């Protein structure tokens, strides 16, 4: 164990880490099995209880977002935390329970439990929160929220994509935590895409205003703006967004903006609940711009892309029609 990691663990223990230092520690814990073992031993040496009760549920959910590791960029139906990352989160919970409970939760224990919605591929969902906020959830999304919000703020957790219609309350900001950045609003509507496996994630603001915090930087958005984050380089930018196309998924449609075939495969996997296998590496660089209506089938979408692509390819479905190979 080096001096830096020991200082970070002690800081985490005392609740004195900055956001940047917290990210550094979590990255170090995920770096290797050895680091995880060192961290668990650190907890044992300080004689912390490993028992988990209802009062730690919000801290656990927050850590699942922070510890979501980025998977390999290949077709995958379900995004799951590796087992050792889940173990790390359980170990960390004892350290963070008191800090998060004191900072984020009200004394009424009935409000501590978080509800979690996991939307499978091929499906969508809608939920109305206790403050009247309505959230529309896209396929492949996990959304965690409390049964009732605290007196100081409204805090939820998102991995995936959702369109938010946030009820206005200037005295109680609405905060969304995602794997890469946090969003703070009071009353507004926007589309938020934050799939950890995607090359780019974004927020497109329809009304009101939002503040985004990412890697120590703050971004203020006005209606019509779109914040975009490159998840590989962690470089962010703000420009004009296309409001109608940003939420086309909520109407059942598909909008592909200069995506390569590998990225398109992920979009189609979520939409149609199938597995797409790209058999040839050279096909992954094919890029496509297009828009498809809700009634168009997977085969119709692939046929259009196939006919307009400068690089020719074929595709075939298996007998059960839940796997497509592109070659």
Overview of this protein structure:
This protein has 327 residues and is of the alpha+beta class. It folds into 3 domains: 1-105, no CATH class; 113-249, Jelly Rolls (Sandwich), CATH 2.60.120.1440; 252-326, Phage tail protein beta-alpha-beta fold. Helices cover 30% and strands 30% of the residues. It contains 8 helices and 18 strands. The strands form 3 sheets. Strands 1, 2, 3, 4, 5, 6, 7, 8, 9, 10, 11, 12 and 13 form a 13-stranded mixed beta sheet that branches. A hairpin with a 5-residue loop joins β8 (189-194) and β9. α1 (3-14) packs across α2, α2 packs across α3 (33-45) and α4 (57-66) packs across α5. The radius of gyration is 21 Å and the shape is globular.
Number of domains: 3
How much beta, percentage-wise? 25-35%
- End-to-end separation in angstroms reads 48 Å
Helix content: 25-40%
DSSP summary: helix tally: 8
Question: What is the residue-averaged pLDDT?
Answer: 79
Number of DSSP E strands: 18
Structural class: alpha+beta
Low-confidence stretches: 47-60, 68-112
Rg over CA atoms? 21 Å
Domain Protein FecR C-terminal: 255-317
Transmembrane segments: 84-105
Pfam families: FecR, FecR_C
Protein name: FecR family protein
